[in-house]
Amino acid sequence: MISRYNLPILIVLLVDIVSPVQAGPIDFAHEVVPILKKHCVACHGGREAKGSFSLNTRELWLESGFVDPKDVKASYVLELVTSSDPEMQMPPKGKPRLSAEEVATLKQWVSEDLPWEAGFSFGKVAYEPPLKPRRPVLPPTVDCRNHPIDRLIDQYLSKHKLPRPGPVDDATFLRRVHLDLVGLLPTPEELTTFLADPCSEKRALKIRELLADDTAYADHWLSFFNDLLRNDYSGTG
């Protein structure tokens, strides 16, 4: 048996359960946008404007004549989403219809004069943060090692209290530079020629030679970045 004291509470709870109307102002971002993305944006958002109707901005909604905040019942867009006529209904036949709750949300949105998030548009591309160029400050030179890379490495080694590696022999250098730049080991003939070369600049010349091999260099690094970006790799050229 329901006490007369509990009856008013029960009535309030039942009204809250059965009423599709929102209790407070419509939340455009969390209530309206999901409905439009689910049912409408594919045909009327971004660069699409089927039926000459784009829903990208609030201004376009109002200019379209599809909504009338002063006469919600006369709003054509609500007529479309509630129509049972297969030739008229939106979304078109074969696509999921809006639920009663979704229709009620759109009606409330229109009745509240289409509240919109400032600056929001369904037509915007993905957000790209602005570039912020900066001029790095190089650490001081150590032991006359003036190259920027050497200066950065020397700072790292000093910070982590690591000894500076000694110079490598020509065979080790050739192997490393080949793997780094073109991803392939030098041939026995290339190794023999390099070891026999008396030129003091042969290491710098070898680096320039490998960098000038555009195809081998591109193949090596293109493969790396395709793996990183998960592209469908089909080779250069």
Automatic annotation (TrEMBL):
Residues 19-114 form the Cytochrome c domain. Keywords: Heme, Iron, Metal-binding. SUPFAM superfamilies: Cytochrome c. It comes from the Bacteria. GO terms for molecular function: electron transfer activity; heme binding; metal ion binding. Pfam families: PSCyt1, PSCyt2. Signal peptide: none annotated. Gene3D superfamilies: Cytochrome c-like domain. This is Cytochrome c domain-containing protein. It comes from Gimesia maris.
